[in-house]
Design a protein that fits this description.
By secondary structure, this protein is mainly α. It has helices at residues 3-13, 17-43, 49-56, 60-69, 80-106, 108-113, 115-124, 134-148, 154-170, 178-195, 197-206, 211-230, 239-258, 265-272, 274-280, 282-295, 301-323. The chain has one domain (3-30, 49-273). It contains 17 helices and no strands. The longest helix is centred in the first third of the chain and has 27 residues, at 17-43.
Amino acid sequence: MSAFDLIAVHAQVSRLAWVDYAKGLCIVMVVMMHSTLDYGIAVSSEGWLHHLVAFARPFRMPGFFLLAGIFLSRSINSPLRDYVDRKLVHFFYFYLLWLVIHLSITESGLLLQNPVEFLGVFAYAWIEPVNTLWFVHMLAIFYMMTRLLRRAPRMLILLLAGSLQIAFSLGWINTGWSLSNRFFTYYVYFFAGYALAPWIFTFARSIPARPRHALLGLVLWAVLNAVFTITSSDSAPGVSLLLGFAGAAAIVTAGSLLSMQSWTYWLRYCGANSIVIYLSFFLPMKVALILLSYSGAVPDVGTASVLITVVAVLSPLLFHWVIKDTWGKFLYERPPSWRLHGMVRSGLRHQD
């Protein structure tokens, strides 16, 4: 039995705690970034949380994409119909649903005044994803691309994907189209999660046995990452790729360490429901942002950004908990009518 087969068996038996903790870290950092930057723009100022957002820039999305790919080996060779249902139709459904919700709110004036132009904005959003939904859109592309490349040598594809990332950072390839540019930037991390999964799991399992060494490694990484972000050299060709992988390794390390602490269970819950948060944090974030920016109730920009982040993370989780057993569960659970024949799995939390 190969290392990839062992991953598949283990993943079917239990849900790995450190993965949820690592995803929890990533989704909180994503929400924090949007909350902090948007609030800073709204009040024309920056706060202390902007520094933490800048620190997380090199690894925030690379870590998220790497984690998205680590269980792909258990489904990459499944029947095509099943794979398309779970990796294309699944994300198509949630992108369509939440695109309608987002645009109906953000473009409500256009919808009422010029429905034809609104339809044009809606159609364009399929080739140029809007707001935070681009991650869901990109995941479907990554999953399908990896299926097409599954017979190719993994290390060769990883090398080519890394070369694309460096070429883009050098400005050698730039389509001016965010969809392709994001592919150049992030596919290497997603594919690395798939291709290097056995080593990632081995690394994660070794951490609890050496917590002090792991903490020392995190401190050294944090110093190095801070130096590059402070000097604004984190986007330099090759450097951004290395920092992305180093940060992803740090997220795996932190996830493993946090999984040893019972008081951090809330972070695991966030990770297990990361897509729930990702789909709907934008709306409560905007409401909290508007209230705080207009009222001036919290004068410190950093503190206000933290409050907005907390609201934006907790609101989707609370809303999901309230509706998960009602007719409204279609917002987070794909209904049977949107499933291809033969599929038996359901729900966002159980996706690979």
